[in-house]
């Protein structure tokens, strides 16, 4: 249970970062975002994305346009706002820091696990 | 074969099978409830609905089918994720977001599955969580109390929707309307009734007639049979009376004296048939209703109908024939000069000269009573309706006279004139008082043909007339009551002027 909680928390943060990354490439439709996230195996169910997108939009990171669709009603296409870009840059920095932190920690852990005195991993 | 619904989801019109529709409704309700704590719930739910619509459209195009089935909905829900999936991700994000541990929402619906009439009581019982029999008992008591319960019931019937879908039935029982509850209730048999109020009402009425209503109808039918039979018996007695078992005097009373004597028997039979046959039919029908008898003999029914129609035709024939006897009118006038007095008193006198006819009527020897007066003891004569009118006119030559106009109608002018001549009417002058008979007499065997007496009193200007209250009913066109000085005055005084008759009292008032 605790493990699950940690997992979802980690996923949650990374999901937000990834969504911003995907949108930063240009106007994109929600289901295309979903498709990409699914490929990256970050997202299991689509329903989670919509609250996230709405929250990001309300915080001023995203904006959207209605674009006419050939097959059905108009669709929402999302773009990054200036604030969004700024925050994405910050997140880039944060991610690098995190990656460094994890890299370092894991290196040390790997070295120690090779030593015979260590207990088994959970 | 499956029933489908047309839904508008995300601005697309989608055909969806009934079971799939119910599942989708439950899912969307769950989603809505889940996001209801979120300020942006409307936008999120709209986004989700749009996406579902898109997925449906894709599925329909891919599989080249017309309607969304339950398996499609299942796939979509899987893809979109259930509320549980949302919870885990959000719990992690927000930290202490409470899970959807809300009480299952209970809504008031009519339970047509357990309905006695329209399911109002059963629905209330679900809502209030009591046994339905207590609600019904309470309703019954309120109906006894001035019937207020009936009105309340009808209002509930109109206002409260019936639980149609499975989701609504679950809400009615207070079960959780999530997919788990949905799956549970799926196992229970479930009939969808989607009919209008009127159709439902008619069905209820039909059911009522089959059951408890039948008792009431039997009571009504029994009452009709009872009173109808009495009435029919009375008709037969009246018929017998008319056909000669009774005093023949009845023929000379109005309105029977309209009918010529030679038509009377036939017309009486016709009227009897016209009245009695529908009554008989009503009684036979009521007997059938009351005692569940089989429909009556067809020959008998048609026979009765034919006799009734014959009666109607005969009746119309004679009525037309009698009406034709009112076609022509005739009148003649008799002028009686009167001694001149400054004041006349007009009265009703019930005494009249004994006539030859009276001696026949009352079987009294005419010679013994010749020129004597008899007293007419009837206030109104049944002989004929309102038939005397009186008015006053200015005499040009200064002489006083009374014009008596005898009027009547008849098939031809000659007959009409003869009828007019047969009218017998009395008035007597005793000094200054004129006494009038209250009734017009026509010969005993004569028919009523609109016989009338018109009295015109010609008096010179300045002559006064005292009119008694009893005589006043013959006055046409005079405002008698306005002329009274006191309400209990026995008479009023009128006076002839250059411009016609005026009320003396009113004139005096003007002069003062």
UniProtKB/TrEMBL annotation, chain A:
One Pfam assignment: PadR
Domain of life: Bacteria
The Transcription regulator PadR N-terminal domain, residue ranges: 19-89
Signal peptide coordinates: none
InterPro entries with a match to the protein in the record: Metal_resp_DNA-bind_regulator, Tscrpt_reg_PadR_N, WH-like_DNA-bd_sf, WH_DNA-bd_sf
PANTHER family registered for this protein in UniProt: PADR-FAMILY TRANSCRIPTIONAL REGULATOR, TRANSCRIPTIONAL REGULATOR RV3488
Protein name: PadR family transcriptional regulator, regulatory protein PadR
Organism of derivation: Pedobacter nyackensis
UniProtKB/TrEMBL annotation, chain B:
Magnesium among keywords: no
Major site of localization recorded for this protein: membrane
Pfam families attached to this UniProt entry: LiaI-LiaF-TM_PspC (PF22571), PspC (PF04024), Toast-rack_PspC-Cterm (PF22744)
Keywords on record: Cell membrane, Membrane, Transmembrane, Transmembrane helix
UniProt membrane topology term: Single-pass membrane protein
Membrane spanning stretches: 137-160, 219-243, 263-287, 299-320
Subcellular location: Cell membrane
GO CC, alphabetical: plasma membrane
The PspC-related transmembrane region domain, residue ranges: 188-326
Domain Phage shock protein PspC N-terminal as annotated: residue spans: 106-163
Transcription regulation listed as a keyword: no
Domain PspC-related ToastRack span(s) in chain numbering: 376-504
Protein name (record): Phage shock protein C (PspC) family protein
């Amino acid at each position: 249970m605790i493990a699950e909680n940690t997992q979802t928390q980690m996923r949650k943060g990374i999901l937000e970062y990834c969504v911003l990354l995907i949108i930063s490439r240009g106007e994109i439709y929600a289901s295309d975002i979903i498709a990409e996230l699914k490929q990256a195996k970050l997202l299991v169910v689509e329903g989670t994305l919509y609250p996230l997108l709405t929250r990001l939009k309300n915080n001023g990171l995203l904006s959207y346009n209605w674009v006419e669709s050939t097959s059905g009603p108009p669709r929402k296409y999302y773009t990054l706002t200036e604030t969004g870009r700024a925050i994405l840059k910050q997140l880039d920095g944060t991610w690098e820091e995190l990656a460094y932190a994890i890299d370092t920690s894991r290196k040390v852990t790997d070295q120690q696990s090779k030593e015979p005195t260590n207990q088994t991993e959970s | 074969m499956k029933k489908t619904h047309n839904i508008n989801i995300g601005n697309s019109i989608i055909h969806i099978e009934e079971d799939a529709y119910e599942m989708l409704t439950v899912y969307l309700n769950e989603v809505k409830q889940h996001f209801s704590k979120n300020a942006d719930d409307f936008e999120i739910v709209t986004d989700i609905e749009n996406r579902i619509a898109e997925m449906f459209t894709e599925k329909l195009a891919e599989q080249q089918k017309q309607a969304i089935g339950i398996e499609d909905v299942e796939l979509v829900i899987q893809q979109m994720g259930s509320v549980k999936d949302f919870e885990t991700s959000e719990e992690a994000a927000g930290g202490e977001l409470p899970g959807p541990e809300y009480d299952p929402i209970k809504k008031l619906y009519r339970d047509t599955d357990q309905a006695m009439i329209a399911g109002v009581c059963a629905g209330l019982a679900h809502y209030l969580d009591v046994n339905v029999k207590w609600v019904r008992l309470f309703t019954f008591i309120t109906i006894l109390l001035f019937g207020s319960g009936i009105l309340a019931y009808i209002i509930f019937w109109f206002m409260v929707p019936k639980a149609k879908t499975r989701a609504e039935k679950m809400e009615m029982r207070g079960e959780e309307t999530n997919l788990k509850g949905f799956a549970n209730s799926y196992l229970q048999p479930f009939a969808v009734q989607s009919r209008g109020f009127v159709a439902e009402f008619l069905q209820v009425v039909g059911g009522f007639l089959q059951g408890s209503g039948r008792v009431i109808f039997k009571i009504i039918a029994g009452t009709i049979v009872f009173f109808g039979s009495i009435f029919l018996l009375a008709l037969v007695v009246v018929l017998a009376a008319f056909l000669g078992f009774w005093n023949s005097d009845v023929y000379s009373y109005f309105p029977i004296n309209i009918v010529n004597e030679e038509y009377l028997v036939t017309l009486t039979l016709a009227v009897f048939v016209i009245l009695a046959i529908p009554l008989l039919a009503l009684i036979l029908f009521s007997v059938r209703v009351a005692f569940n008898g089989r429909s009556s003999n067809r020959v008998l029914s048609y026979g009765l109908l034919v006799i009734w129609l014959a009666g109607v035709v005969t009746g119309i024939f004679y009525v037309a024939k009698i009406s034709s006897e009112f076609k022509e009118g005739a009148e003649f006038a008799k002028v009686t000069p009167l001694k001149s007095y400054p004041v006349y008193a007009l009265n009703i006198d019930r005494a009249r000269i004994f006539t030859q006819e009276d001696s026949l009527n009352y079987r009294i020897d005419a010679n013994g009573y010749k020129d004597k007066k008899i007293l007419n003891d009837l206030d109104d004569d049944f002989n004929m309706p309102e038939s005397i009118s009186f008015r006053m006119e200015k005499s040009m030559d200064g002489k006083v006279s009374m014009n008596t106009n005898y009027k009547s109608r008849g098939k031809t002018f000659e007959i009409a004139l003869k009828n007019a001549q047969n009218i017998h009417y009395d008035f007597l002058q005793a000094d200054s008082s004129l006494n009038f008979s209250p009734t017009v007499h026509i010969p005993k065997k004569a028919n009523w043909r609109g016989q009338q007496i018109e009295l015109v009193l010609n008096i010179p200007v300045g002559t006064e007339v005292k009119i008694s209250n009893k005589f006043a009913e013959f006055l046409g066109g005079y405002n008698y009551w306005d002329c009274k000085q006191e309400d209990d005055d026995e008479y009023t005084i009128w006076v002839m002027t250059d411009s016609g008759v005026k009320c003396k009292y009113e004139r005096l008032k003007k002069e003062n």
